[in-house]
Fold this sequence. Notes:
With about 575 residues, the protein is an alpha+beta fold. The protein is built from 24 helices and 13 strands.
Amino acid sequence: MSYTPKTISEVVTEHLNRMTFLPAIQREYVWNTKKIEKLFDSILGDFPIGTFLFWKIREENKNQWTAYEFLRDYDAEFPHNKSANLDGVNQDIYLVLDGQQRLTSLYIGLKGSYRYFYYRWRKTKLYLNLLKESNKPDNPEELTYQFLFRENDMPNPKDNNPQFWYPVGDILNYIDAEDAKKALKTKLARFPEDLRDTAKTHIGRLHSRIHTLRLLNYYEEKSQDYDKVVEAFIRANTGGVKLEYSDILLSTATAKWKHLNAREEIHSFTDNINLIGNGYSFGKDFVLKGSLYLTDGLPIQYKVKNFNKTNLEKIESNWELIKSNIEKTIKLVSKFGFNDKNLVAKIALLPIALYLSKNGVRNFDNSTNKDDVKNQIVIQKWLTITLLKNAFGSSSDTTLKNLQEALSNQTDFSNFPYEDLNNKLNIEPSFNETEIENLLSINYGTKYSYLILSLLYPNRDWKDNKYHEDHIFPKTEFSKAKLKRRGYEQEQIDEYRKYFNSVLNLQLITDSENFEKNSKDFEEWFSTRDTNFKNRHTIPSLNSYNFDNFIEFINERKKIIEAKLNEIEI
């Protein structure tokens, strides 16, 4: 395999966004500033930075593929690549199959900026402290040189070490290393000779690594056969940052959609649904899987062959309905308190979205029609119970296909067909004794705790309200030291600590209630609550809610919750 060597300055100034671009097959840029700093440290320290794979597209074929520009100024708020306009490029082009993260990092470090949020939005550039000695650290994760993304070149007043922050990109302005050194002569004059020598050495070394040494070696894939290129891409990207399969499939969709830009549509839609409610982390994989699932007659397996021209045209023509029903579903479950943490199997939303597409009620998620509201509650219970029973735990494609068949066999969509869906899932619409016992042992802050608690509030209005899991008896009182100070024996301490963090000592209260309650003694705080508070939060009737009665409280509350869970049936 023959590689073509290039200097970094040659690639950054002459290739990127001029004749070298990114294919839609590529994932987006994901490196943080630390990884970029480490890349430049490796270059200056003469460590290898790997090889690259470029796909050479003949000029007559360049318009068959959608290409994207490399990011020069990265913005975490708007991280997407722009489409490249190839109309004025009258030559063969290259699309990078392996090396996008490294090349983008070089581009940002030498010619651009990196904007990110840390307490506030910061627009930074890459600097090198020319006065730091290049001592090789004992820890290989530490940098040999002091590269850092900064907002300006001002010395850090909290750092007593010598500092002179040099914008790394300035090295591109000098063809000769001596000119780069002379340009700093006046600015460095105030420092001692040994520090000036260190700075000159760093500048000379940086110049040679960027301008002189051919450190970038790439192999050209010349085939115009797309399937072969996809395979080369997959093989080249088996390591490093996880590559979503959707990133590979998006290239096919982008090339074959007739009227819409698949990459921009799917990225934009994914961003939008992740802003619903308190925020989610849906990926492009979920959206593409949903596109297959919500389009009649398509296979749902996530394979390249299923994204052929015919199937992609069907998805494109159905795209607005796909978006509408996925978004409607997420808004609906968000209204019922489902969030990114407790929505433990996101694919469980797809059968609901398919039902809504067949139900056909506009704005179903906001409907106040009594039949729609009844249907909404059924969907909420069904989703909660299936998630708690881990019904989507394995063989997800088979499970989804079975539910799709059950929905396709319906003739009346006025009611959510939970019975038929449960039969396909092989689950009961209620909990048995063993399941209830397991549910009550779930602890605070786990992925299932919120779901269990939500079942205890069947009449709650979840819309636009944010509820917190709260320890009824404050958890701060259950440390071993505090329990010993109360004079409890070890056996009693163990029993208190067994239950304090479980569902039996948890409730869902509003953020304002949680702030007000804080770590107050429960008996004291409870006395200030309204008359319905006890029933609303399944609080048992006791003579005293003193901390000494905690175990009595747990035993009595367990009976109430068990009874409630036994009564739950869709």
